[in-house]
Amino acid sequence: MARTLAPGQRSRVLTVDVDSGETTVIHESTEILYEAPNWSLDGTALFINGDGHLFRLDLDGGDPVRINFGDLPELNNDHVLDPDGEHVFVSANDWHIYRAPLAGGEPVRITNDNEDGRLHFLHGVSPDGRELAYIGLTADDNGVWAPPNVFVIPAVGGPDAQLTDDEFPDDGSEYSPDGEWIYFNSERARTRPGHAQLFRMRRDGSEATQLTSDERVNWFPHPSPDGSRLAYVSFPPGTEGHPADRDVIVRICNADGTGVRDLRRLLGGQGTMNVPSWSPDGERIAFVEYPINESEPA
Fold this sequence. Notes:
Blueprint: E1 11-17, E2 23-29, E3 34-39, E4 45-50, E5 53-58, E6 65-66, E7 75-81, E8 87-92, E9 97-101, E10 108-109, E11 119-125, E12 131-137, E13 149-154, E14 161-162, E15 170-175, E16 181-186, E17 197-202, E18 209-210, E19 217-223, E20 229-235, E21 246-254, E22 261-268, E23 284-289
Antiparallel strand pairs: 1-2, 1-23, 3-4, 4-5, 5-6, 7-8, 8-9, 9-10, 11-12, 12-13, 13-14, 15-16, 16-17, 17-18, 19-20, 20-21, 21-22
Protein name: PD40 domain-containing protein
InterPro entries: 6-blade_b-propeller_TolB-like (IPR011042), WD40 (IPR011659)
Family: Belongs to the TolB family.
């Protein structure tokens, strides 16, 4: 089931200039809970999830316009544009990943029916468009979920390859602009349950390196188009997972994890910035906040 707004809550789609900190409200809704904005390749529109569908939101005004994908199952909030600029990869609530035309039309399923009953959650597309990085989640015969891991699969379909395999949750896998690295968040260095930090590894899963190390819980690293910076969502200490409606901070840092800077404090978390969120020119980031009863972020 698609997420919905709480009584008195709204979803507010914004962009922020990463150098000046100036924010711009692009759209507000008291009816649909919008999530996970990313940008058209020409920088003129955002693509956002809401009510189980994908919408195009032009930056020069107007309401979000739903994209018709025919019989595609209801979507969750994981969607990433194909580098060809004409297609989008989306995760559906049948737990598979599809490729579909951005102009609308019938999708093609990419992921496999694996023997382990794996659920697929898309997060990254390689810069050459040849490979997808996703998070795989499986349960044992008793319904106990194993920690999620990073997998890759050819963008046209084919055999999966597992890149991480440990007892700690990994999530938010996204490629660097040069295609050499995959950034992700992980609890592998945790000091308490839920204490995720940012990491990167080679495209084959080797050379995993920790980038952040602080008291907060850091999720969804998004490399800038030139690869010099990361944007991410920082949850309060003690948070487990990436829940909704928390007092979070949208942060930016250098690609090596240094130079952390706050861009916006807001009520959000899940849905705020789950997918690649940088404008093509690297000047702005798109995100969503969810104020309740007209409260404003501190």
